[in-house]
Specification:
This protein has about 140 residues and is of the alpha+beta class. The chain is built from 3 helices and 7 strands; from the N terminus they run βαβββββαβα.
């Protein structure tokens, strides 16, 4: 089965670096596995493609469901006129894009574009801290 994609998008008038939409989708996908791409947090770059040059501020977030058959990509983006670097966009218009991919192996699908998906849903605990916590609980039970 080839991946099937669905897309929704909207604009919000909210000053940079608003993460209101990110907080909303973090809550919706709280039980899904959070994934990490090559970009973290807000990034910015000049874009000379197309007819008009522009400067982009964006943030991208990824999730995969527990069955590993759906992946969601959220992109928050501000676009300014001209490709010259700037710390903040020249407007408060945030473009929000949500992509949902249905595919037999969502983690492998995202890995093809450099996105790594962990094992636990939105967990900030790494394996070492999980092992230390388990060892502490075991010591408490034994003592």
């Amino acid at each position: 089965m080839s991946p099937i994609a669905e897309q929704d998008y909207f604009w919000m008038n909210t000053p940079y670096p608003s993460e209101t939409a990110l907080a909303h989708y973090n809550a919706i996908f709280a039980k899904w596995t959070s994934c990490k791409g090559s970009e973290y947090g807000w990034t910015s770059f000049g874009d000379l493609s197309g007819n008009e040059s522009k400067f982009i501020h964006r943030q991208i977030k990824y999730w995969v469901n527990a069955r590993n058959n759906q992946a969601v990509t959220l992109q928050l983006q501000y676009k300014s006129q001209g490709a010259v670097y700037r710390n903040v966009p020249d407007n408060d218009r945030q473009f929000v894009v949500v992509l949902r991919h249905k595919t037999p192996n969502a983690k492998a699908f995202l890995k093809e574009v450099g996105v790594e998906c962990g094992m636990a849903p939105n967990s900030s605990l790494n394996t070492d801290s999980q092992q230390r916590a388990a060892a502490s609980r075991q010591m408490l039970r034994a003592g």
